Amino acid sequence: MEGILIEEDDSRSDSEAPRTPKTLCCGACTEDSEEELGCVAGPLLLSVLIVVCGTASTITSKLQYEVRSRGFEHCHYDDRITRRCPFTKPYFQTLVMKVAMSTCLLIAWVARRCRRKPTGELAEALLANEAPRQTPDRSAILAVAAPAFTDLLQTALAQAGLLFVSSSTYQMTRGSVVVFTCILSVRWLKQKLRPHHYVAVAVVCAAVALVGVAGRFGEKGHTSLGSYVLGLGLIVVGQAVGALQFCLEEHLMVERGLSPVVLVGWEGLWGVLYFVALAPVLSLTPDSDVAAAALWHEDFAETFDQLAHSGDLIALTLASALALLLYNLVGNMVTKQLSAVMRSILESCRTLGVWLTSLVLYYAFHDASAGERWTGWSFLELLGFALLVYGTLAYKELVPVPLPRPASPLPIDRQR
Question: Which of 331, 329, 332, 335 is nearest to 104 (CA)?
Answer without folding.
Answer: 329
